[in-house]
Fold this sequence. Notes:
Layout: H1 3-23, E1 25-27, H2 28-39, E2 44-46, E3 52-54, H3 56-66, E4 70-73, E5 78-81, E6 91-92
Parallel strand pairs: 4-6
Antiparallel strand pairs: 1-5, 2-3, 4-5
Amino acid sequence: MSDDERGKAAAVASWMKGQLEKHQTLYQDVAVHEIQSRFGPEFTYLNDAGNPAIDRKVLAAFRSLTEGSVVWERGERCWRRRESYDPEGRVVD
């Protein structure tokens, strides 16, 4: 990955983090549509199940920005702040 690609992915991840801080949650479907309109379709794709998804480079950058403070709530398909009752790891059901 070039420095330019890494920088663009980091910018999208930073935007995601800001949205999460502002709204307390960040739903994947909302994030995908906003990313497409703000940053371009190259940061999203359709996954194997045919659902819109966020590019893996962006997710890796988002993870590095939020490691330990954010969890992915699988059932809701959203990220939210980690709570004291959350189990270890990034994913909660």
